[in-house]
């Protein structure tokens, strides 16, 4: 009897990285956001690093629009680009403002080695790989943050009103953010439909690598892992 393939490719991706995502959710930085106990200093460090991360990350959506083969997909990538630059980065800008950090300071943050390695990895694949490869790189960012947002919301919603990070939690657990993540999941399944195992393995590796970078990013933030030698620009 022939077996019927019922599992979606994204189910396989999810199963594959579940232990990594579980570590991400339980990371003390993430739990500190959930409980509202994370030091302000660390959160403002996060805002600066994540802001320059998002500038690079959003370019993946622009490259996605360029690589798309239908108007529908182009439209959706342009929505993702718009939503990241406006909705998502607005959350960062408004937190920064309340912390006394200017927009200029946010933009001019120097990415740490991990931050740079993460965005460079994705941008390299985006420029040189297929659309499916690009999506497999950007999906963990969207999907794992949505998972984190939803879980923090359900674990800590009773204390949310007094949590200084409630707007962050609300944004990443929102239906709006979730709908965009779901669209990316669906696109991943469409792009991989009936594709050979040799191609799927490559995507699984990108998905795993960027999921591991998500963990390294939290670690980097917690330990403020900067460049070893500080240099000044000559002006
Ligand atoms: C590092 C990182 N990963 C994912 C997201 C979600 O967009 C984010 N803001 N930052
Ligand atoms: C708005 C946005 N920013 C990063 S991913 C994403 C949409 C998918 O959740």
TrEMBL record:
Residues 15-223 form the Thiaminase-2/PQQC domain. The keyword Hydrolase applies. Keywords: Hydrolase, Thiamine biosynthesis. It comes from the Bacteria. Transmembrane segments: none annotated. GO terms for cellular component: cytosol. Pathway: Cofactor biosynthesis; thiamine diphosphate biosynthesis. Gene3D superfamilies: Heme oxygenase-like. Its EC number is 3.5.99.2. InterPro entries: Haem_Oase-like_multi-hlx, Thiaminase-2/PQQC, Thiaminase_II, Thiamine_Salvage_TenA. GO terms for biological process: thiamine biosynthetic process; thiamine diphosphate biosynthetic process. It catalyses: 4-amino-5-aminomethyl-2-methylpyrimidine + H2O = 4-amino-5-hydroxymethyl-2-methylpyrimidine + NH4(+); thiamine + H2O = 5-(2-hydroxyethyl)-4-methylthiazole + 4-amino-5-hydroxymethyl-2-methylpyrimidine + H(+). GO terms for molecular function: thiaminase activity. Pfam families: TENA_THI-4. PANTHER family: BIFUNCTIONAL TH2 PROTEIN, SI:CH1073-67J19.1-RELATED. Catalyzes an amino-pyrimidine hydrolysis reaction at the C5' of the pyrimidine moiety of thiamine compounds, a reaction that is part of a thiamine salvage pathway. Homotetramer. Belongs to the TenA family. This is Aminopyrimidine aminohydrolase. It comes from Heyndrickxia oleronia.
